[in-house]
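Weekly sync notes, structure subgroup
Attendees: PM, AL, DS (notes)

Item 1: joint prediction request from the bench team. They want all two components modeled as one assembly rather than separately. Inputs as received:
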Amino acid sequence: MKHLLQLEWMKYRGNKTMVIFFIATLVLYPAGLLLTHIFLTSVIPEELPVDLFKFPEIWALTGYVANWITYFFIVLMGMQMITLEYSGKTLRQNLITGLTRAEFLMSKVQFLALACLILTIWFGIVTLLLGLYAGSEFQFEIFEVLKYLFLHFLMVFAYGFAGMLIGLVFRVLALSFILFFIYASFIEPAFSRLVHNNIFGGNTYLYYPANAFKDLLPFPYYSQITEMMPPEEQIQFTLTESHAIVATIIYLGLMGVLAWKKMQRSNF
Amino acid sequence: MCIIKTNGLTKHYGRVRALENLNLELKKGEVLGLLGPNGSGKTTTLSILLGIIKPDLGSYLWFEGKYDRPLLKVGSILETPNHYTYLSGWENLRIVAHIKKVPETGLMEIADQVGLKGRIYSRVSTYSLGMRQRLAIACSLIGDPELLIFDEPTNGLDPQGIAEVRKLINDIAGTGKTIIMASHILSEVEKICSHTAVLNNGRLIASGPVAELLKQTNSYLLAYRDAEKLQEVLTGFEGYVSHHFDGEAVHTELEENFDGTDLNAYLHSRGISVSTLAFKERKLEDAFMDMLAKDKTSSSRA
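Output from the run, pasted for the record:
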């Protein structure tokens, strides 16, 4: 494991795009959260139903902000990890040098997991600091903290893996990102809500992959919004936490199998 | 020891035959020149052996099955050199050493051997094509491989780059390493290789020691103002074996018991007075062209 991580580190530490994506994500976490804090406290302070920055509520808020930031940057990072190797034909060179196809894929997965772990630790630190600075009370419940750290890790890893898989299939960064963006922002929401929902009804339309990843750390106040609606109009906006976790893990497994088969069968 | 043995390797791209039933064997210490015109299947063969293309049929065995990871014992350049151009030459060497799981000691000697020591810490994006090719050769030498594979190593280089790379490969071949070199620059192969395998349209049409291919044949060079007529008449000569036209002159091979005088008399009797008729020293290029011509004739007959 260490051997493959070292190899990836050697490749990426001099790659400006990768470094920019990662540092941008790190910087955007506190920046995004501080902007959220400024916006919520100075622009709409009277409308706030609760203290959003007190523990444990702050975890849901920072998780949601992280969700938006990683939606772009981690996906791009995952894609760049693969498309960089295609564009320079270095994947092919790695294989003829003696790296196996399985090792190549595992090196990417391990490096992505490590990047997600670092981001998750950073997410934890930033949330704790913001809570200390802006929250009305400080609470540190280890299980609550671990739950949000786990949800965050799963979310960024799923986004990154999706980026990797798309990069593996389409091989070009710009094309891969445009296709991902169109799928996640337009095709999936439109299809799931307009087609799937009309045919099957219920809340099964929420189980599509991009939505399942997003619902790991969703907008935290849907429950309050729902409570304000008349009972006959109340709908389920998001998957429950456990369903989002199970759906994401299943999708990760499927993406893993697809990536494996693609690596094993492709000519390079 | 057998370095590589292929058994019926076959690869098609749709309806295009890239490789057909290739059976090849390379022994330790041989320097094999893989010859053939563009699209004959040289790169496809090497790509299959190096595991980046899957064959449709057939199999191959590296080092008689001695190693679990045989490619760690092979150093290769396939077509153009592929490096991490945003990294330095040194970092690229380190990556290869890491993949091959060999220590980094000795990397600087290799950089020195290929003449890159002075620029090894510069980014590869600032290298000329010749320098990139030399870096690729350096990468292939890491880990003291038992086999080196060079696919068109002088492709795209300027004359100075060609001379540099040629000298480098010559030096490596002189150390007794087993090498496979795919090229269509026949003078290069003739100087370096001990054996050749000739591919045409994905089929192996000849293989064996270079000395055997260069064995003197009864060949002549002919020039006449109407080359088409000359070729037509030539095929009717009693001692005719084969011929090809290089755009300027006709090269022909005759049976052993016929010579230039017989040929000249025959042509004269058919109203052709050639401007040139000369006995030809056989070079690899001639042997290669003859093989292609014979293959074309036998294919059209079939």
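Discussion: The first helix of chain B runs from residue 42 to 49.
Action: AL to compare against the crosslinking data before next sync.
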